[in-house]
């Protein structure tokens, strides 16, 4: 399937991205490195011994930095190295350096990372989504679809969206046009599959692609995909108008912007009302005040499709300081009997969007407009002010607003409490938790387990254990039963602060409160046991309590035994019959890392080979741990296999540098050069490659024996001549100094 897919994508892109205005041809998608830079091609032969003469070494350093530039051989490009790659015409447009000063496009990007609140609670849907994400990253979108098809599962809309976002993210991260073409081809293929499997193409699926083509100013590609989207879902035509206007704003195409505005002005029929609204919404995100005002003269914003759309108009009015216009629209809404809650929200949207206005003045403007228009604020409009205050880190102001709205009988959502508590954490105003809790009690505000968890976290950040325990007692008074997870939070913080005695006492508090400890509780206790007897005691207590041990227990046992110097007992943990079979490989992976960290390399490698024979792979961090501890007496090809397992992970660069260091220690300059070539292909920036090499390789050589310094100098000469990599001049003095120190030590000996 994979081969046929690439053939399919190649044919697609050759027609999709063909343009007579572009002469650049794209190479085939699936060659990551050229033929000379693959791991398999690394030569494993030993290089000859380096020269010992100090004069020769100093000359070599100077030649590396100041040698004739004509002698530096520039490496062949990736495209030239692989002559068999098929050429395809592309019309991807990289329209750089276009003057775009008169536009400000504001979009709220969804947070890529959310703070994990519960360590051991995942819904089935979350686990399935996570599985799709992992498979997509490791196997690629096509193979993931095929895999789930074989087991009778379809990824569903969320799964397809995750794979599409993955492709777009990869395209954003790459400066290689071939990679971009490949990822766009994959997205097209995913759109096609969704249609074939009965899924309707909605905006959520298309949005990442459309925003990417807009950001990268890919005009032709944008229109191609718009046609694909229209064909699959004609109801999206109006919404695509928003993205079309955003595109012309992005590339600053005055002619097209005027054309779309004239289209709205000349056609007031209902058939294009959706297009009018979306063109207006796009303009409202720009700095084009003149065009916005012109459109607002001919568009009745009371007829916009949603209160959210109207709110965006008022945001634009606030940003452009158009208060008279805003007041006229608000008066019009009031006279037409519009819902009061929406009107007060429009006022809030306007006020919080006014630029360079302090939060206190925003609140004043909010109140003045309500007084002028004779309307009362609602809970939702007050909450907009609270969120605005939190965004500016003004927790005191947010709490003042809470008190004010509660005094007039309005209710505060639990989500607002969460926002205020998170802002306290971000601004390090932990002591405000006392005022927050007083407000909760004073106005009998709605709370839940998550609210108390946040407050407990703030007390712990102040190292106030008494305050944290008081929150648990207060939960009981509010008929909320504290969970083991909340006690575990306190226990974890105690151990993190090396407060072992208070950490152990948490178990006593749990017993007093009749709260049953869980597997996480015992994993903390075992991990922080100071004696073998304590390890045995807690594990015995766990089994007697009837709690089903999770993988964290066995990982804790391995770490705890190793910390006590009982490596043999750490070895025996993997033989425990209570280990869930699905977690056995992960626990063995951790054992490999622990054994390597404690110098038991032969044992670690034996377990690694056992894991490989069983058809599994080590976790990237465990592979990295193994590579870091290997210094000699291990074949280079084994290290290269480990490196290959780290492809497409964040650990690859560090592991590659560590193996280069290994090659220097063992005077294998040829292999070190090839690894530097791989690193160069990954980074694509010579300056960045040399910075990484000096930070993670050569800086570690400076204080070692002279033979290693000689080998490092030989490597510097080789990568200069063969790869065109010249070290930055700021490292020149450090190299000379290191060699001088080494020479003095050698002469003294």
TrEMBL record:
A Pfam cross-reference name: PPR_long
UniProtKB keywords: Repeat
Gene3D superfamilies on file: Tetratricopeptide repeat domain (1.25.40.10)
PPR repeats: 448-482, 483-517
InterPro entries according to UniProt: PPR_rpt, PROP1-like_PPR_dom, TPR-like_helical_dom_sf
Domain named PROP1-like PPR: residues: 386-527
Protein name: PROP1-like PPR domain-containing protein
Classification of source organism: Eukaryota, Viridiplantae, Streptophyta, Embryophyta, Tracheophyta
